[in-house]
Amino acid sequence: MSWPVKTIAERTGDLLPGSPWTAALYVLLTILAVTAFMTVTGLVLIYAERKIAAHFQCRLGPMRVGWHGVLQTIADALKLLLKEDIVPRDADALLHILAPVLSFAGMLLVMIALPMSPSLQVADMNIGVLYVTAVSGLGVLGILLGGWSSNNKWSLLGAMRAGAQIISYEVSATLALLVVVLFSGTLQLSGIVQSQEAGWWIWRAHGCGIVAFAIFLIAGTAEINRTPFDLAEGESELTAGFHTEYSGLRFSFFFLSEFLNMFVLAAMTSTLFLGGWMPLHIGHFTVFNGVMDIIPPGLWFTFKTTGMIFLIMWFRWTFPRLRVDQLMRLEWKILLPIGFVNLFVSAACVVTGCYFFAR
Amino acid sequence: MTGEQIMFYLLGGGAVLASAAMLLPPMGRSPIHSAISLIVSFFFLAGLYALLSAHMLSVLQIIVYAGAVMVLFTFVIMLLNLNADELQESRITPGRIAAGILALFVFGKLATAIQLTTAGAQSVDLSDPGFANFGSVPEVGRMMYTTFLVPFELVSVLLLVAAVGAVVLAKRSMKYVDRPLPPPAGYEHPAPSDDEGGHDAHAHGGGH
To answer: Cα separations (Å) of A351 from A104, A182, A264, A342, A344?
Structure first.
């Protein structure tokens, strides 16, 4: 069974010679759909986080608005939109306004490259992995500028911590990501998914896959500033870190992009290591593969991404927050050496063809 | 004008504007605004690379310059935390004049170098099948490890030197950190729990 990929960008390209206005409308609708998808995903994730956090602590969580509190985030979002939007007097007004937009724009640009199913991907670049790494770097700038422009010591400290942390952990995340690029032999995201037709890289790569998966997950959790790496906004030390001075709509932009970061991390992890939209296949077991193919690819992607999101939320209630020096030691003295050795071993595996179901 | 030319003038104009904004007031007056203008200009340059079919180079431009280098720049600017009157002064010092002349000299050298390399060059049609892989990752990698292997390795040695230099500098400052600081004037040692240092505390007349 082959998996032809048809992206939305390609469909727009098909429309272009005949009717440019339809193509333009198509582009506009795509932008609207992606933005709407981001907003709804953000709302769902916030609700999920509150419910999961509550049940981990034997509480009920939001229960009042709607059935089991499902409308709670919508009510909260409305409240945030109606709140006063404050720019502190001594803040750098231009950058203060620009920062949340920057971190949200970075998210939007990542979102168009994610392969959600063979027919649901906005653009499929031949350098997809590099592209995702590049544009997700915009988020750091948003955080740094937000912290600096607030003209507040807590904000500045939070931003500094976030900047140092994200830049450091990006090294390990990229090293882990290179392992998958080595095995699949392509930087195209849909190509990486298709290369896992005989099995997911997490188990097919003879141990290298699972090590890279662990490194990527740890480094990714640090990059999105989530517990146990949430020093950037450690409440007990820095009030709210880089977004202390933010309120109303612009705070919600930061908040939303934080949750969408988690979605992107989960989606990227499942794309690289768990086969993305590719069903669970085992080599040449055609009957087993056929049964698995009954479930459509879009659902596979959803299941895997949801599972990863649950895992990341689980971390939050399992591990205590690290100290700054522990954070740096974990990256430079533990994760980075392991990542380098893992990259060498997997290069040897690829060259010798020593992995499961190598062609 | 073709679509490509329109895009070239848009991106190039954007890059020039952003670079001008980096140097001139009102943006140029604050270092952090200058840094932001520089980032914007890098993005326009990345667009120009993409227009030249060098997709990998354009993404690397964003990762390395806009992502890593400029984040470090903003980081350092924030750490320096220059105050307003330090930034207001715009005196013309001999050092600044020398720097300006040096910059002009480097600019002139670069311009002649670009002219020399493009003098005998012919324009090629990128839609030609022979250029199907132009600018793609495998093609760039192949060129880096065959034609341009020696410059590539020399650049990596340069990076190694920079890394070793950073370690040496960090080690030197560590010496001062490791040595315990002398107590400030008028500091009283707290009463020690054992008998050994007890005399000192009494000698200083500490009332405990």
So the answer is: 40, 10, 31, 14, 11
CB contact under 8 Å between A148 and B56, yes or no, is no
Nearest chain B Cα distance for residue A32, angstroms: 24
In chain A, residues with a C-beta closer than 8 Å to the C-beta of B68 are 137, 167
Q: For residue A120, list its beta bridge partners.
A: A117
ipTM of this predicted complex?
Answer: 0.79
**Identity of the amino acid at A203:** W
- Cα A287 from chain centroid (whole Å): 34
Would residue A243 count as lying in a domain?
yes
**Quick check: is A178 in a domain?**
yes
Identify the CATH class of B1-81.
mainly alpha
Picking from A130, A134, A163, the nearest residue to B71 by CB comes out as: A163
A250 lies in some domain: yes
Domain presence at residue A49: no
Closest chain B residue to A126, measured at CA: B136
- The ranges assigned to domains in chain B are 1-81, 136-178
The conformation of residue A68, written as its DSSP 8-state character, comes to: G
Tokens of A209: 């896959």
Dist CA A267 CA A275 (whole Å)? 10
Structure-token match 């170098």, residue found: B113
Please tell me chain A's helix, strand, coil percentages from 3-state DSSP, rounded to the nearest 5: 70, 0, 30
The number of folded domains in chain A is 1
**Which are the contacts of B32, defined by CB distance < 8 A and separation ≥ 6?**
A92, A95, A145, A148, B74, B77, B78
The answer to whether the beta carbons of residues B74 and B32 sit under 8 Å apart is: yes
pLDDT digits (tens, 9 = 90+) for A284-305: 888 888 888 888 888 899 999 9
pLDDT in tens, B16-37: 888 888 777 776 677 788 888 8
Q: With an 8 Å Cβ cutoff, are B79 and A144 in contact?
A: no
Domain interval for residue A139: 79-352
Q: What is the pLDDT along chain A (359 residues), one digit of tens a residue?
A: 577 888 888 888 888 787 888 888 888 888 898 889 988 998 899 999 999 989 988 988 888 888 888 888 888 888 888 888 777 777 777 888 888 888 888 888 888 888 888 888 888 888 888 888 888 878 888 888 888 888 778 888 888 888 888 888 888 998 999 999 988 888 888 888 888 888 888 888 888 889 999 999 999 998 888 878 877 776 667 777 777 778 778 888 888 888 898 999 999 999 999 888 888 888 788 888 888 888 888 889 999 999 999 999 998 888 888 888 888 888 888 999 999 999 999 999 888 887 777 66
